[in-house]
Amino acid sequence: MLKFLSKVKIEYNALDPRIASCMEFMAQCNSRKARESNPAFQVEVKRRTDEHPPQITVTFVNGVEQAFDATSTPAQSIRTMILEKGQTLETEQMFREAGESWPVIIPKEELSHPASGIKPRKAEEKKQ
């Protein structure tokens, strides 16, 4: 997960009972395995004393920031979203390295064509 990130900022008030997601995500970021996957990765922790809700802000390696409301978003959901975005970043990088444009734009008329190399299923196969 950390290989897609350059920085994580975790903000919470220690007296707020809704900090579970922040604590779990911070533990994931500080694990040995995670640290080894991206040694340049930075974790910034801001312990607040005001009523600001717990928040996790991630910065992807391409500079894009995304903030998550840690009161209503479990750490596992944040991790899943980071991995999905990371797959998109890897795909984009592969296209750019191959000299292809990004994003890939598929002409509308090609969307209605059947995929080549794939046989359409017969009606009796569909029923089973």
Automatic annotation (TrEMBL):
Which keywords label this protein? Answer: Mitochondrion, Ribonucleoprotein, Ribosomal protein, Transit peptide
Instruction: Kindly provide the name given to this protein in its UniProt entry.
Output: Large ribosomal subunit protein mL53
Cellular location(s): Mitochondrion
* Gene Ontology CC annotation, any one: mitochondrial large ribosomal subunit
| Ribosomal protein found in the keyword field | yes
Q: Where is this region: Disordered?
A: 108-128
A Pfam family it matches: MRP_L53
Regarding protein family, the annotation reads:
Belongs to the mitochondrion-specific ribosomal protein mL53 family.
What is the organism of origin for this protein?
A: Arachis hypogaea (Peanut)
> Is Ribonucleoprotein there in the keyword field?
yes
On the tree of life, the source organism's domain of life is Eukaryota
Q: Where does this protein have coiled-coil stretches? A: none
Q: Which residues cross the membrane?
A: none
Q: Which InterPro entries match?
A: mtLSU_mL53, Ribosomal_mL53
